[in-house]
Amino acid sequence: MTSQNFIIREVTPKDNSEIANVVRSVILEMGAPKVGTAYEDTATDKMFETYQKVKATYFVVVHKNKVIGGAGIAQLDNYEGNVCELQKMYFLPIARGKGLGTKLISICLEKAKEFGFKSCYLETLPYMKAAVKLYEKNGFMGLEKPMGNTCHYACNVWMIKHI
Predict the structure, then answer these.
(1) What is this structure's pTM?
(2) Ramachandran region of residue 65, left (φ > 0), alpha (ψ -120 to 50) or beta?
(3) Which is the CATH superfamily of the domain at 3-117?
(4) Which of 4, 25, 45, 84 gives 20 to 30 Å between its CA and that of 35?
């Protein structure tokens, strides 16, 4: 299965429940806590509405008319500065290992550049090793402490990339 079988497009209202299921199932699969992560975010159930703000967008990955992944960017919460956050990047197993993560990151960073952001921040969990490797491969560097306040206190790996 090649990446040609996958479509990356902006989220629509009808994608809300499917992308929420992707986010929550990956969090459970990885053994991540439900509390202090995207699992409990109200935004997870309203991804389309959440990203209908200035300088924000969310993309879904679709395979055979089913949402199997996604990621978005938006201004970093509670932070004064020209920094966006790569948010809610999750893939079901069928989407992994096909270069889709790198492709989605580059689409998000291109959009961030269009919006005028200078840096992109992200948070993840240490046992999401494949994700951390993917971010490093795409130029994200580790930080000693978090930036802003995303309320994802369970996420203790912080990374940034200048764009």
Answers:
(1) 0.92
(2) left
(3) Gcn5-related N-acetyltransferase (GNAT) (3.40.630.30)
(4) 84
